[in-house]
Amino acid sequence: MIKRSKRDLKQIALLSQLPPEVITDQPRITIIGDFEIVIENHKGLIGYEDTLVKINTNVSPLLIEGNKLVIERMDNEIIVVRGEIRSLKYFPESDWEK
């Protein structure tokens, strides 16, 4: 199989009229107010507490911080987190354990 650059994949997505996250394997994050986040195309749950949820993605690890956080739904494609959402951060894996 031919390896393609991210730029090539984005061009293919534009030309094919498919959503870019489908072709480039990027997560799709939908934020609904300050009480719900839907992460599609994730790579798994890293950690979970009622004040933070750590999710693996192809971009980098994702941290959701808040209060009374609950994973309402989780399967191979989607994670739905509800609660009092305060922040959403991507950061390099080298900073993950800090």
TrEMBL record:
<dbReference type="InterPro" id="IPR022477">
    <property type="entry name" value="Spore_YqfC"/>
</dbReference>
<dbReference type="Pfam" id="PF07873">
    <property type="entry name" value="YabP"/>
</dbReference>
<protein>
    <submittedName>
        <fullName>Sporulation protein YqfC</fullName>
    </submittedName>
</protein>
<dbReference type="InterPro" id="IPR022476">
    <property type="entry name" value="Spore_YabP/YqfC"/>
</dbReference>
